[in-house]
Design goal:
single chain, alpha/beta, TIM Barrel, 8-stranded parallel β-barrel, two-stranded antiparallel sheet, 12 helices
Length: about 350
């Protein structure tokens, strides 16, 4: 039986070993979220089992499906994701509109997909396959893109909107990632939100970041900035009160800081206006191309080349890409190699 995709309206906190006690003790938390790759579905942590028995919803958050990859979704990873969702009684699973893998190559950071109709066709196929294998609904997350592909045929919001419409997936709108992309690559927040089917929002992510070498980096290690809080206000003004999750992966400076952030987010959600009805008469998506094997192979080669480029410490810049963006991607990869997140350490040990 498939569970409801609805989370209770309110504020959640990502479950990590460093936040586990706060998640357990803060009774106003509406839900939590767990990185699937850190969980053994046959032996979930005792602390998580206690939360589940208490009735706190636990979202299973995947980071390794590489849904945007030109290769088919890895069946073993998909089966494991489904097993974790079942073990945690998750109301939904979330994953990223991104790729990170090609054959034996794997980047320790999400890479953005090209904004083309060919890529959209690949995403639709992979998301449909993933959704069919999962025991609960799937929500798709926008990422903070360190690079921008040349030759865009669609705006990111347009690609997301078509992807959601064609697959029936829900939307995990990451406000911090959206803020990072607007700062680093330009764009208009109102125009972006106007293109999205906001009625499909399952929940929101919020996290802190910092300016690093002239670029806004989504660090998950800093307090939520006033600018990100303002972006969250703009989103809530459009969609009303919805579930909001605070992410923190590094920089666990103090319980008091996290408590203040959670208090502030709760105030923002409470102050949001009533949820607006979905707009009527949304335009039907255009037909997608039927991709011949040669086009799949061409996209696969392009994705592999980008992975190889960002994994290299130096070397030539791909034609059409901004050298500053490639440098930023390489810096993020180098940082994650020095200090991998818990889910990256788990993926390496399992590999």
């Amino acid at each position: 039986m498939q569970l409801s995709a609805r989370l209770p309206v309110g504020v959640g906190l990502g479950w990590r070993p460093e936040t586990a006690l706060l998640v357990e003790e803060r009774r106003s938390l509406a839900f939590t979220e767990v990185i699937a790759e850190t969980i053994d579905p046959t032996r979930p942590p005792t602390a998580l089992r206690s939360l589940i028995e208490r009735g706190l919803p636990v979202v299973t958050h995947g980071v390794s499906l590489s849904l945007g990859g030109a290769a088919r979704v890895d069946e073993a990873r998909l089966a494991r994701l489904a097993a974790v969702a079942t073990a945690l009684r998750s109301p939904l699973v979330s994953e990223h509109v991104a790729f990170s893998r090609h054959d034996e190559l794997e980047a320790p950071h999400f890479l953005p997909v090209p904004m083309t109709r060919t890529q959209l066709a690949v995403l639709v196929d992979n998301v449909r396959r993933a959704s069919a294998a999962l025991p609960v609904p799937l929500a798709l997350e926008n990422i903070a893109a360190p690079v921008v592909w040349p030759g865009a045929e669609l705006a990111e919001a347009e690609l997301l909107a078509e992807l959601l419409e064609r697959t029936g997936a829900r939307l995990l709108l990451d406000v911090a990632n959206l803020h990072a992309n607007l700062v680093n690559h330009g764009g208009d927040l109102d125009a972006y939100l106007a293109r999205l089917p906001l009625e499909r929002v399952a929940y929101l992510h919020v996290a802190g970041g910092a300016h690093v070498d002239g670029t806004w980096r989504d660090t998950h290690a800093h307090a939520v900035s006033p600018a990100i809080a303002a972006t969250l206000d703009c989103v809530l003004d459009r969609i009303g009160p919805v579930p909001v999750l605070l992410e923190r992966d590094h920089g666990f400076s103090s319980r008091a800081e996290l408590t203040r952030e959670l208090d502030a987010l709760e105030s923002q959600v409470v102050a949001a206006p009533p949820r607006r009805p979905a707009p009527a008469g949304r335009r039907a998506p255009l037909p997608l191309p039927t991709l011949p094997p040669a086009e799949w192979a061409q996209l696969a080669r392009a994705q592999r080349t980008l992975i190889e480029t960002v994994l290299a410490a130096d070397g030539p810049i791909l034609e059409g890409f901004d050298a500053r963006h490639i440098a930023e991607a390489r810096a993020i990869v180098a940082q994650k190699r020095r200090r991998p997140c818990a889910h990256m350490r788990r993926r390496r040990s399992a590999g």
